[in-house]
Amino acid sequence: MTEPAPVLEIRSLEVIYEAGRRRRIQAVSDASFEMIQGETLGLVGESGCGKSSIARAVMQLPPPTSGRVMFFGEDLTRVDRLRLRQLRPRLQMIFQDSVAALNPRRKVGETIAMPLRVAGKVPKEKRNKRAREMMSAVGLDPALFGHRPFQLSGGQCQRVQFARALMTEPGLLICDEPVSSLDVSIQAQILNLLERVRIRHGLTILFISHDMAVVKNVCDRVAVMYLGKLCETAPTEALYRQPAHPYTAVLINAIPMPGAPLSRPEMRAAAADLPSSIDPPSGCRFHTRCPVARARCAEIEPSLETVGPCRQAACHYPLCNG
Q: With bands split at pLDDT 50, 70 and 90, how would you rate the model's confidence at 13?
């Protein structure tokens, strides 16, 4: 039986920003991964590690410095503006700040219907009808159709984002820290909504977060980033049960577990400042903070290698092999 073709395939992605005075920020370095239809991939790591830069590179906002972004086999980095405009409705993004992501002067119904308006060829009456249906589908009262964002709560604004994103029946939904700015009770509601729409619409979701506890409950697979580099990818259950990369173990050990001891108390990052992405360390970028680093780690950069079924790690001395 042949495996389904990837919905998204990232190959050797590089994202570099100019920082002035001839300095450059290496936000993403040589990142490669793929996603199949219907799966949710968690992209995790500390703030500033390059997660959002990958998301924006996929959306071509802006395009990456180099590398390939294959969406259903079509390289988004090489298509012309017209073709990219045609493909954009199938690529949708949910932003972290739900209020700032909405135009404060535009009514809720207009915001949700806007993707169909931009796509054209859909009469206003049908757009509005579809918008009200989508509001009900994501748990918003259609009576809010004429309200503006400042009249809604943060959770309601996030639901507006979901409704707007689903209007064009996308093939890929990118969620960039979608619940980090919400109260815990509202977080649970939004995550439940995300799971419902994933099942109902068969969505493929790239879920970006720094919250390892949330990712554990939401994602099928996890990709871990550190200072612009992917250091581990694995199925969620295997990764949380036995991480292969020391940085992954450090992140998992940081998950609050009331009443329970740390599973690997020795796996804590060294008390050192986070290195700069302008001048990253030689060798393994984590070696300056790694609790198990050796001399080789500072000299030779490890590549992402297979260390078990469906899992890879960029480590000279992985914590597990299988």
A: very high
pLDDT bracket for residue 3 (50, 70, 90)? low
Q: How many CB atoms lie within 10 A of CB 142?
A: 14
Give the count of beta carbons closer than 10 Å to the beta carbon of residue 105: 8
- Cα separation values, 50 from 28, 53, 145, 171, 268, Å: 6, 5, 36, 23, 22
How far is Cα 81 from Cα 152, in angstroms, rounded to an integer?
Answer: 35
Max Cα separation, the chain?
Answer: 67
Question: Which tens digits make up the pLDDT trace of 57-83?
Answer: 999 988 999 999 999 999 999 999 999
Of 71, 78, 111, whose CA–CA distance to 95 is shortest?
111
Q: Please write the tens of the pLDDT for every residue from 18-27.
A: 888 888 899 9
The three-class DSSP label of residue 128 is helix
Nearest-CA neighbor of 99 among 31, 155, 43, 61?
A: 155
Tokens of 198: 């994933």
Contact 231, 313 (CB under 8 A): yes
Q: Using CB atoms within 10 A of its CB, is residue 314 exposed (0-12), middle (13-18) or buried (19+)?
A: buried
Alpha helices (H) in 73-208, listed in sequence order = 81-87, 108-119, 124-137, 154-166, 184-201
Which residues of 171-282 form beta strands (DSSP E)? Answer: 172-176, 204-209, 221-226, 229-235
